[in-house]
Amino acid sequence: MDGLDRTRGVRLRRSAAAMALTGMLAGCGLVEPKQTYEQAYEAMRPDAMAAMGEAWPGVEMEKESADLEECGGLDISADKNASKIQQGVTYRGEVPAEDRRSIEELARAVGERLLERGWRNGSATRSPGEGDLEFAENLPGEVLLDMEKPGVHGWVAVGAFVDSPERHSVSLNLVTECLRNPEWEK
Hints:
- The structure is a single chain.
- With 186 residues, the protein is an alpha+beta fold.
- Helices cover 32% and strands 32% of the residues.
- The chain contains 3 helices and 8 strands; from the N terminus they run ααββαββββββ.
- Strands 1, 2, 3, 4, 5, 6, 7 and 8 form an 8-stranded antiparallel β-sheet that branches.
- A hairpin with an 8-residue loop joins β1 (62-72) and β2.
- α2 crosses α3.
- The termini are far apart.
């Protein structure tokens, strides 16, 4: 019976070591999310577009840019390939002159609607008691609010800017993390 106990102990130690290694690899970013860049973008887009429309009625938003950046390959290499993609799409518009909200109010309006849809403030610097939303950047004439949807590998950056004392503009950027490209090597 003693031989069986030793064998079982060896298996338990090996299993524990394998689980510890898996945890370390996941913590170092070596275990990749199963989500593709397309899935992350499509998981964020409907909420972001609806929140933008509700918060900024009368603002004509135009797609300013849509970028796919190759980010696959070794982290230490400058040569990147299309095995992974980071997608970024930017919408921008001018706020009608009759909308007298401050740039902070404009950005918070989208953030509040995303909170209602289960999103969270993406600012890593937020501390308890400061409210539900904190700006990632709050500069004279410009604010930026980052929002994250739980379970989705990406974020939305809501921006508002002072163009002139009477004019404000707003932007909404949907950005995925560097994620698997399902079209790679098919």
